[in-house]
Amino acid sequence: MIANFMLSMEIETIQDRTLCVLLNWELRFNIIMGIARGLLYLHRDSRLKIIHRDLKTSNVLLDEEMNPKISDFGLARILGGQQTEANTQRVVGTYGYMAPEYAMDGDFSTKSDVFSFGVVVLEILSGKRNAAFYKSDQNFSLSAYAWRLWKEEKVLDLMDRALCETCDANEFVRCVNVGLLCVQENQWDRPTMSNVVFMLESDTASLPTPKKPAFAASRSLFNTASSSSKADSYVDLTNTLEQGR
């Protein structure tokens, strides 16, 4: 029997004191780093360049040592040779994680995965569901909320309150900075995953200032796209057991 843990940090579940101990700052930072290295492998180090196209918290599994594993490659596409991007007439994915150029025009590339990674990072840091912002009266996205706090120099207010006792404030701010760089509206402004890994690993590197993110706040925009799964499968730590075959 192989034990796996699904990362989908439902805010109600994350308030459970037992699970909060599991999801301390060191663990969350390691999860972020692991996902970043996994995407870097897919984009650069794999024999084939793979675009996941549906990266989200519920598609990240944690093994028994709480190491993250990117899963569900059902929508993944392979780019051949020197190809860096492609286009599709059938947009599939999950609302709230799709980059604007993909949701609106069907253009996908490594930078669309970078956008999805940025949303995942902000969810992990805040313990908030991106879907909750889309359904709120304010109609904000999580990236818009994080951006507002960044501009107001209140970025620590984004922190999940369960992290207050364990969080490294400097690492937290660096992760928010990286997350916001990843969700910038123009894909050419977003970093590559190699740059993301470098920025997360470096304590001394000077990080760029993020530009205004793609808010993607309009539900009508994403209603034009198809979804491969429910958008509400976000932030909930569930322990799943997979029978060995």
TrEMBL record:
One Pfam family, please name it. Pkinase
The protein's Enzyme Commission number: 2.7.11.1
Q: Does the keyword Transferase apply?
A: yes
Provide this UniProt record's keywords sorted from A to Z: ATP-binding, Disulfide bond, Glycoprotein, Kinase, Nucleotide-binding, Serine/threonine-protein kinase, Signal, Transferase
Identify the residues that the record assigns to the Protein kinase domain, covering every copy. 1-215
EC category name: transferase
Q: Which InterPro entries match?
A: Prot_kinase_dom (IPR000719), Ser/Thr_kinase_AS (IPR008271)
Catalyzed reactions per annotation = L-seryl-[protein] + ATP = O-phospho-L-seryl-[protein] + ADP + H(+); L-threonyl-[protein] + ATP = O-phospho-L-threonyl-[protein] + ADP + H(+)
Q: Which GO terms describe its cellular component?
A: plasma membrane
PROSITE patterns recorded: PROTEIN_KINASE_DOM, PROTEIN_KINASE_ST
Q: Please name the PANTHER family in this protein's record.
A: NON-SPECIFIC SERINE_THREONINE PROTEIN KINASE, RECEPTOR-LIKE SERINE/THREONINE-PROTEIN KINASE SD1-8
> What protein is this chain from?
non-specific serine/threonine protein kinase
